[in-house]
Design a protein that fits this description.
The structure is a single chain. The protein is an alpha/beta fold. Helix content is 31%, strand content 20%. It has 8 helices and 9 strands. The strands form 2 sheets. It has a 6-stranded parallel sheet with strand order 3-2-1-7-8-9, sandwiched between helices. A hairpin with a 6-residue loop joins strand 4 and strand 5. Helix 5 runs parallel beside helix 8. The chain starts with a strand and ends with a helix. The relative contact order is 0.19. The chain binds 2'-O-acetyl adenosine-5-diphosphoribose. 2'-O-acetyl adenosine-5-diphosphoribose binds next to helix 1.
Length: 228
């Protein structure tokens, strides 16, 4: 049985990583247009690099929580594909083997000119750090107004799944939010969130309004009772 799981910032909240929209719509005090758009990069690349250097440090210091571990555990019994909007690596560190990062990864950087010239990065990226093509390095992260290259792979994963699970996302950022509409009509669907977000009617939908760590525990119990 195939499970597709779409996760957002809420799955990492209990690991101490802040969500985007839980406080005033600001990211760590910054309006999104100042740190996560191509325009921001043109206007003030140092600020953008600093912002993501700080995010990288936060992620390095964080550890996976019981929600990440629970989703990884499900691989013992199901075929599980994680589609995450998160740029952290907590799903991988918890042991999930199939993780698609829709919005990029904080531990990767790329040439600002060539999106395929990608490198690992653990420390800071500084202004003046260049890729092999001589162009400035930037975080390998999808900013607002940029295309989401992995969305089609994500759609296929969702279309093929027998169960579709959403954990900790406000479902306001497209195209990721639209993935809920690609699930098979008959597939059982679950949304786990501290505050269930608005979604249009979905057939066969169950809501688990709890923090991710508790919600994933409940989900595992439901899946084991129903499908094993
Ligand atoms: P948001 O900050 O928009 O939403 C976080 C969701 O997590 C909300 O629905 C909260 O109710 C929920 N939440 C908070 N704490 C939780 C907890 N402990 N357990 C369960 N749920 C909890 O984050 P995303 O939906 O991930 O994109 O945001 C989507 C995208 O917006 C991000 O990937 C990012 C941002 O712009 C890019 O960087 C391109």
């Amino acid at each position: 049985m195939r499970l597709a799981v779409l996760t957002g910032a809420g799955v990492s909240a209990e690991s101490g990583l802040k969500t985007f929209r839980d406080s005033d719509g600001l990211w760590e005090g910054y309006p999104v247009t100042e740190v996560a758009t191509p325009g921001a990069w043109r206007k003030n690349p140092s600020l953008v690099l600093d912002f993501y250097n700080m995010r990288r440090r936060n992620v390095s210091d964080a550890i996976p929580n019981l929600a990440h571990h629970g989703l990884a555990e499900l691989e013992k019994e199901f075929e599980v594909d994680i589609i995450t909007q998160n740029i952290d690596d907590l799903h991988e560190r918890a042991g999930s083997s199939s993780v698609l990062h829709l919005h990029g990864e904080i531990f990767k950087m790329r040439s600002e000119r060539n999106e395929r010239m990608i490198y690992e990065i653990r420390g800071d990226i500084l202004l003046g750090d260049k890729a092999e093509d001589g162009h400035q390095l930037r975080p390998n992260i999808v900013w607002f107004e940029e295309p989401v290259p992995l969305i089609e792979s994500a759609m296929r994963i969702v279309q093929q799944a027998d169960l579709f699970i959403v954990v900790g996302t406000s479902l306001v950022v497209y195209p990721a939010a639209g993935l809920v509409h690609y699930a098979k009509w008959e597939a059982a669907k679950f949304i786990i969130d501290k505050r269930i977000p608005y979604t249009t009617d979905l057939h066969n939908l169950s809501l688990i309004e709890k923090p991710a760590t508790e919600g994933v525990k409940d989900l595992i119990q439901i899946l084991r009772t129903r499908y094993l």
